[in-house]
Amino acid sequence: MASGLNENRKSLNKIFDIVEKREVGAVIIAFKDRITRFGFKYLERYFAPHNVKIEVDGEEPKDAYQELVEDLVALVSGFAGKLYGLRSHKYKEVVEGVRQLIAE
Fold first, then answer.
1. What is the pTM of this model?
2. So what's the pLDDT on residue 1?
């Protein structure tokens, strides 16, 4: 399974190739974090000169608190994934612990 934390994914690289060749006018994604956890605006800026838009199909507007919480969880997930491996038990414990702390 590919992760939005991994910037060297085969499918993401394929999207870049298609965009650079101007074979599409839009890239449609369900949620921003499926294409990248961070730097979504960079991708939009990179695609723009190629006349390609990124359309997010399933995302609801978020308030500042919700965005901050999601960013914190994504940061911890990224570091825990690198330290423990994305499929490890320890990784899941760390991420769940952070989610519980933030929810309190």
1. 0.54
2. 40
